[in-house]
Inverse folding.
C-alpha cells in the first residue's frame, strides 16, 4: 500500500495524520493508546522515508473535541484541561491548516498537540 501511495505523489506534497494526545498517555485503555501511538510512529517513519522526495508527513494530536457528548462527560473532561474546556471543531482547523501549508514547509515527522494544555501535565 505504501508503494502505491508513494507512486501517486509528486514532490512537495503534505500528509496530515490525525492521532490524539492519548497516544502518549498511560492511563487509558491499552488498545486505544496503542492505536494512537501507532499513528505517531507511522508519521515519523514515513517522514524519514519520504523527506528526500519533498513529501512532508506530520501528525496533529487534538485533545477532546466537543461534538455532542453529554454535559456530564464534557464537565468532567473539561475539568482536566488547563484551559478549562474541550476544543470546538474551529480550534482544530488552524493547526491543521498550518501543518498542510507552506508555513510549516521545514517540518516533517512532527507531532503537533492542540489540546488546551492537557498534554502539558
Amino acid at each position: 500500500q505504501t508503494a502505491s501511495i508513494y507512486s501517486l505523489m509528486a514532490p512537495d506534497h503534505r500528509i496530515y495524520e490525525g492521532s490524539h494526545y492519548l497516544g502518549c498517555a498511560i492511563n487509558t485503555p491499552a488498545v486505544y493508546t496503542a492505536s494512537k501511538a501507532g499513528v505517531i510512529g507511522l508519521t515519523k517513519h514515513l517522514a524519514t522515508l519520504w523527506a528526500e522526495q519533498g513529501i512532508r508527513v506530520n501528525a496533529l494530536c487534538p485533545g477532546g473535541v466537543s461534538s455532542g457528548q453529554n454535559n456530564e462527560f464534557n464537565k468532567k473532561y473539561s475539568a482536566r484541561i488547563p484551559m478549562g474546556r474541550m476544543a470546538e471543531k474551529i480550534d482544530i482547523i488552524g493547526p491543521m491548516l498550518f501543518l498542510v501549508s507552506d508555513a510549516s514547509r521545514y517540518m516533517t515527522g512532527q507531532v503537533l498537540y492542540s489540546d488546551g494544555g492537557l498534554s502539558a501535565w
